[in-house]
Amino acid sequence: MSRPAALRLFALLTLILTLGACASATQSERQALVDRAQASAERFSADPNMTWFRDNLAQAEGVLIIPNMAKAGLLIGGSGGSGVMLMRNEKKDWSYPAFYTVGSITYGLQIGGEIAEIVLLIMTKSARDSMLSNEFRLGGDISVAVGPVGAGAKAQIVDVLAFSRTKGGLYGGLNLEGALFVTREAWNRAYYGKDVRAVDILVSGSAGNPGADPLRQVISGTAAN
């Protein structure tokens, strides 16, 4: 690995560890993240510019929702946040959510900060399988592109489509190429009250929490329309 690449990876891992440092959060804080993800899903589902998202959610292998993605920096910028992932099982039912943290490092002139909500549609089985690991990176083996916005928009053929909107309702082209996602294992264990991995939650269906049922209903309802 080259020195610049090593420094980039170190910075990215530092950001991830910083964002995930609050492993001792209360159950109410974990539930609050699920509730914020539900609210984001409802906004995306109701947004008239998210026609493609609504029409194609039923074909997606999974969805990852980041209710608050913070971006800030000057010459070296960073984006990060926490979110939840849901996947469809063989019966086409939507799983309970697994918790993840995401971090991304960017270079170049960047002034100011921004808060956005992000929804990733996982469109291929290969991406779905790759994203079941404890950590994964977008780009390379998991191709990612900005999701289409507006009537008549068409999507690229990629593994993951990223839809984003700022808190003011604007649609941004937040670059998630190279973003690193890490499972919040302590949060998953605490939220479900037992030792579970992301694959147990998302595929095996061996964990459940009624607090996440409203989120699952929003995703299922949107996919069914």
Describe the 3D structure.
This protein is of the alpha+beta class. Helix content is 34%, strand content 27%. The protein has one domain (3-224). The chain has helices at residues 3-19, 27-46, 51-56, 125-130, 185-192, 198-204, 213-224; strands at 62-73, 76-87, 98-107, 113-122, 135-137, 144-146, 160-166, 180-183. The protein has an eight-stranded mixed β-sheet with strand order 5-8-3-2-1-4-7-6. Helix 2 runs parallel beside helix 7. The chain is globular, with a radius of gyration of 17 Å.
Task: Considering the chains and any ligands shown, give keywords for the structure.
single chain; 225 residues; alpha+beta; eight-stranded mixed β-sheet; 7 helices; globular
Q: Which bin fits the share of residues in helices?
A: 25-40%
Biggest sheet, spatial arrangement of strands: 5-8-3-2-1-4-7-6
* Gross morphology: globular
Compute the separation of the termini in Å. Answer: 47 Å
Biggest sheet statistics: 8 strands, mixed
Strand % is 25-35%
Structural class: alpha+beta
Enumerate how many helices there are, as a single number: 7
Q: Which radius of gyration do the C-alpha atoms yield?
A: 17 Å
- Total individual domains: 1
**Count of DSSP strands:** 8
Indicate the mean pLDDT: 81
Unreliable spans are 1-22, 107-112
Order of helices and strands: HHHEEEEHEEEEHHH
